[in-house]
Write a structure and sequence with these properties.
Blueprint (H helix, E strand, L loop, with lengths): L3 H6 L8 E13 L3 E7 L7 E6 L5 H5 L6 E10 L7 E12 L14 H5 L9 H23 L3 E2 L5 E2 L11 E2 L26 E3 L4 H11 L1 E9 L12 E10 L3 H22 L1 H10 L4 H9 L4 E4 H10 L16 H11 L4 E4 L21 E6 L3 E8 L4 H10 L8 H8 L5 E7 H9 L20
Parallel strand pairs: 3-5, 6-10, 12-13
Antiparallel strand pairs: 1-2, 1-4, 2-3, 4-5, 7-9, 8-9, 10-11, 11-16, 13-14, 14-15, 15-16
The protein binds 4-amino-1,4-dioxobutan-2-aminium adenosine-5'-monophosphate and magnesium ion.
The site of magnesium ion has 3 residues, from β15.
Length: 461
């Protein structure tokens, strides 16, 4: 049994040999006494053409095959006379393993991405989604390779947590009890004592706090797993369930952090250009004609590095009309992030040192007392793909900040311990995996780069 990938890689090895393959019918053309079937077995982009004729003992059944039927085929690999392919399989046996019903939804035409989302369980059988999800798999592995080659330790951080890392309150609650039934104390706060964990818990929004504690043991660590946010924003770049890559380095500052982020992104681009030629060719022809050129340019230039304050000044001076006001103290709106990367710098841009009020509690306070050592990486077409920072390692300043924000210190006692017992400067970031894939492929909707997207009012499948 040969995979179609093997055949395309080294056809000479199999020419004029008897081989067997299995796969699903992608196209079928039948004349009176012969026919052609293209099958795909999922291992490779291209189909294999099967030629058959009346000599098959089940010729009548084969002639009536439906799209997506599963087959086992035996035959001889021969040079093809057709212009479309170099070789084809002259079938001696075609065994019908699973006959597809005639109402198979993926008929031979281009379907819209919107329609394909409604059949997310079938869309991996199309060329676009085959390319997207093969690339996603390769990139996930490349991310592990990148960190493992550097000696980073992979930490599995918990999915169910008792704290809100980002302090944005956008969490999915985890409970065995009906929220309405839980008793309330005289102040009106819900008492979770009767609940499974005996306290309020939620699906993690970020593995950062947990992975930070491991960085104080292993120095360089990373976590890579699913994260969850109940953000009710129905945009093309927000999902309620998405994957995040979060490295954390002890004895490191914001510069080290930016260096690592830039290295990681360039590593992934190189991986794609070197190891995914067929997928890249597909994206270049059907999704974004300038993709490879753009990625090569990114490889060959340093990312821009500016402070938030400089970004505000640049945007104000740009003469670009924005829908939302550009003012120091306001978070950058998507339109402004895109202006920075698409019009002003025309490449990825690190924006650092944001006002503390618009960033999370754990970021290190700068000497000006107003900004924190934050970094966002903005890229053309998508906007923010990375959020990170140097962490506040000074216990007193961290505790002050938590008090100002009304965070209960007892809930974070274990986090604060890392500052008490040999705390060091440290830094890390979170790369949104789906946003990275969008950027690296030119796909424009997050729903089309994750297998079964979870978005507001949508948890089908
Ligand atoms: O900027 P964020 O919120 O940073 C953190 O969570 C930090 N704790 C990470 C760290 O320092 N270890 O999220 C990081 C990235 C964003 O830049 C974005 O790429 C992605 O996660 N992200 C989302 N992706 C898809 N859907 C959403 N709703 C996302 N929210 C954040
Ligand atoms: Mg962010």
């Amino acid at each position: 049994r040969i995979s179609i990938k093997d055949l395309y890689r080294e056809p000479d090895l199999f020419l004029n040999q008897t081989i067997s393959v299995e796969g699903w019918v992608r196209t079928l053309r039948v004349s009176k006494n012969f026919g052609f079937i293209e099958i795909n077995d999922g291992t490779f982009f291209n189909n294999l053409q099967i030629v058959f004729d009346e000599n098959l003992n089940n010729f009548q059944e084969v002639a009536k095959l439906t799209l997506s039927s599963a087959l086992h085929v035996e035959g001889t690999l021969v040079k093809s006379l057709g212009a479309k392919q170099l070789f084809e399989l002259k079938a001696s046996v075609i065994e019908i393993i699973g006959l597809s019903e005639p109402d198979y939804p993926l008929q031979k035409k281009r379907h819209s991405f919107e329609y394909l989302r409604t059949i997310a369980h079938l869309r991996p059988r199309t060329n676009t989604f085959s390319a997207v999800f093969r690339l996603r798999s390769t990139l996930a592995f490349a991310i592990h390779k990148f960190f493992q080659e550097k000696g980073f330790v992979y930490v599995h951080t918990p999915i169910i947590t008792g704290s809100d890392c980002e302090g944005a309150g956008e969490m999915f609650r985890v409970s065995t009890l009906d929220y309405e039934q839980l008793p309330k104390n005289p102040q009106g706060q819900v008492d979770f004592g009767e609940d499974f964990f005996g306290k309020e818990t939620n699906l993690t929004v970020s593995g950062q706090l947990a992975v930070e504690t491991y960085s104080m043991a292993f120095k360089n660590v990373y976590t890579f797993g699913p994260t969850f946010r109940a953000e009710n924003s129905n945009t093309a770049r927000h999902a309620a369930e998405f994957w995040m890559i979060e490295p954390e380095m002890a004895f490191a500052d914001l510069k080290d952090n930016m260096h690592l982020a830039e290295e990681l992104l360039k590593y992934l681009i190189r991986e794609m250009l070197e190891n995914l030629p067929d997928e890249m060719a597909f994206f270049n022809s059907f999704i974004d004609k300038a993709l490879s050129d753009r990625l090569v340019q990114v490889l060959n230039a340093d990312f821009a590095r500016i402070t938030y304050t400089e970004a505000i000044q640049l945007l104000q001076k740009s003469g670009i009309k924005f829908e939302y006001p550009v003012a120091w103290g306001q978070d950058l709106h998507t339109e402004q992030e895109r202006a920075l990367t698409e019009q002003i710098f025309k490449k990825p841009v690190f924006v650092t040192d944001y006002p503390k009020e618009i960033k999370a509690f754990y970021m290190r306070l700068n000497d000006d007392g107003k900004t924190v050592a934050a970094m966002d990486l903005l890229v053309p077409g998508v906007g923010e793909i990375i959020g990170g920072s140097q962490r506040e390692e000074r216990l007193e300043i961290l505790e002050n900040r938590m008090s100002q924000l009304g965070l209960n210190h007892q809930d974070y006692w274990w986090y604060l311990d890392t500052r008490k017992y040999g705390g060091t400067p440290h830094a890390g970031f979170g790369l949104g995996f789906e946003r990275a894939i969008m950027y690296l492929t030119g796909m424009t909707n997050i729903r089309d780069v994750i297998s079964f997207p979870r978005t507001p009012k949508n948890a089908e499948f």
